[in-house]
Amino acid sequence: MENKAIGIFDSGSGGLTVFKAIKKLLPDERLIYFGDFARIPYGTKSKKLVQQYALEDARFLMQYDIKMIVVACNTASSMALDFLKDNVDIPVVGVVKPGAMAAAGKTRNNSIGVIGTSATINSNAYSQAILENLPQADIYSNACPLLVPLVEEGWLDNKITQLTLKIYLKDILDNNIDTLILGCTHYPLLGATIQKIVGSHIQLIDSGQETAKTVYEVLTKNNLHNKGSKKDDDQFFVSDIPQKFEEIASRFLGEPLKNVKQVSFDDMNLGVDIISK
Amino acid sequence: MENKAIGIFDSGSGGLTVFKAIKKLLPDERLIYFGDFARIPYGTKSKKLVQQYALEDARFLMQYDIKMIVVACNTASSMALDFLKDNVDIPVVGVVKPGAMAAAGKTRNNSIGVIGTSATINSNAYSQAILENLPQADIYSNACPLLVPLVEEGWLDNKITQLTLKIYLKDILDNNIDTLILGCTHYPLLGATIQKIVGSHIQLIDSGQETAKTVYEVLTKNNLHNKGSKKDDDQFFVSDIPQKFEEIASRFLGEPLKNVKQVSFDDMNLGVDIISK
Predict the structure, then answer these.
(1) In angstroms, what separates the C-alpha of A107 from chain B's closest C-alpha?
(2) Most C-beta atoms within 10 A of its C-beta, which of A41, A88, A119, B113?
(3) Contact A118 B243 (CB under 8 A)
(4) In terms of residue numbers, what domain contains B163?
């Protein structure tokens, strides 16, 4: 059991920031990543559809006899985590709870901001997870749908990105928060720009980094750590290879992707049809 | 034959600008619209995948015994029009050729600009279609991936949208164009802002409006005009109902959508599996 891989999925390349954090913390674990580029983005879609897509992604990864699933996507974690746990029989870790717990632990004035996609923010998943850990918290959140396209365009710190962030963050900053959750795996790439706008007195929470710590804990608790050193390379699967794929993916991973294979859901019988009926 | 409906599809709501233009020019025709919100956007995806999606969309509409298909999406028109024509037996009209022909007819200095999604621009479909009509044309094009998210966010004329347009249009305007094709069905909503930035001496071509004229001509040529006045209402089908659907859709149509039904591709056997293998 202990030498099985960890499966990680996202709607596209954003989850590579989580992949990178897990790889750094757990260098002896073999990782299998699936990016659902054929149906990206999830953040603008309905809950039912995100649940269907997430279960298909999980079933795809489970074909590789993995020991754990990491939902490296805030939208899928917000909308489909409990649903996934009900439908698979290995541990499932999302990015929302680790980020929420870290924020609840670090805030001093109990005022926490959250930014994410429309789907993530409207789900209230972060608010619920924060309040479970810190019932007296005041939470101020805002959906920021333009940030993902800005990151994909590679505009990480130009005037347009700064102005957009100022609009999206205005109401949150008016509420004297001391902690801000980056509730989307694309946002760590805007971390330096966001920190400049919010000021150094506000601490940013990168849910991906916090998730890596949770993955470590779950492996420990279930005695699932790889016993030896890693023998096989990590693998990447994608459901489409769009233009600029390599440029975008390496922006997130910090290095070029190796071992990338394209797959098609139509070639598989993942048994998820019932979800959409 | 003549009282059949016209089928129109797009990846989402952008095609409603084309729907609106056709409805205005052909008020006696019944229209059936399909918006593939479950897989929106197409503009960032690969050619093979866009072809598969387009054929599935067309097969879906053909279940309603339509007399013609309008591909109300620049990406699908650029990447999948010939492929569709090879695979269906009714007339298929896209938005690229009508826009290209109009631009070739209207330019006086033979310098034409084109803006669109990454997929549309990289396909070179507009350049090819313009050169077929005007071999001596000089064409300057640029992919503008942030414009669709800006329109979806409803930021049609704020400072961010203006700055973004200035960046995207700079190189094109340096080349003394007198005609600019809005090569994406979202862009007509930015028409006034774009006109302000490029100046009144540059004429904008709205491919959707030109497409409505082509639809009229194809109906005439094939003797397919509805003989009486319209008896049944138009219908709208969508593959997902995302948040803000009504707000976004009515922004494009100029009025609320009635008769909207959600459908799932998983419930159908559209016979397109072979495409992705």
Answers:
(1) 31
(2) B113
(3) yes
(4) 97-207
Instruction: Determine whether the interchain pair B163/A163 forms a contact, defined as Cβ–Cβ distance below 8 Å.
Output: yes
* Predicted complex ipTM: 0.90
Measure the CA–CA gap between A208 and A211, rounded to whole angstroms.
5
In a domain, B147, yes or no: yes
| Dist. CA B180–CA B114, nearest whole Å | 6
pLDDT-derived band at B266, boundaries 50, 70, 90: low
DSSP at A189: G
Q: Is A67 helix (H, G, I), strand (E, B) or coil?
A: coil
Report the alpha-carbon distance of residue B140 to residue A76 in Å, rounded: 40
- Contact with chain A for residue B38, Cβ under 8 A: yes
Is it the case that residue B2 has pLDDT exceeding 60?
no
Domain C-terminal end among A190, A207, A224: A207
Range A156-166 average pLDDT = 97
Q: CA B77 → CA A40, A109, B73, B103, B146, distances in Å?
A: 20, 54, 6, 17, 20
Sheet containing B31-35: give its strands across. B92-94, B68-71, B6-10, B31-35, B235-238, B260-262
Which of B11, B150, B160, B169 best tests the A interface by mutation, with the highest count of A CBs <10 A?
A: B160
pLDDT of B189-213, one tens digit each? 999 999 999 999 999 999 999 999 9
Is B73 part of the annotated catalytic residue set? yes
**Chain A residue with the nearest C-alpha to that of B248:** A44
A242 contact B CB<8A: yes
* CB B31 within 8 Å of CB B22: yes
Residue A1 lies inside a defined structural domain of this protein: no
pLDDT of residue A149: 94
Q: Do A89 and A216 have their domain in common?
A: yes
Tens digit of each residue's pLDDT (9 = 90 or more) over B32-65: 999 999 999 998 899 999 999 999 999 999 999 9
Residue B272 lies in a domain: yes
| Full-model pTM | 0.92
Per-residue pLDDT tens over the stretch A233-261: 999 999 998 877 888 889 999 999 888 99
Q: What is the CATH number of the domain that holds A117?
A: 3.40.50.1860
Kindly indicate the confidence band of residue B270, based on its pLDDT and cuts at 50, 70 and 90.
Answer: low
Helix, coil or strand: residue A145: coil
- The residues, ordered by sequence, that sit 6+ positions from B226 with a Cβ below 8 Å of its Cβ are B2, B3, B28, B29, B30
CA proximity to A61, closest of A215, A263, A277: A263
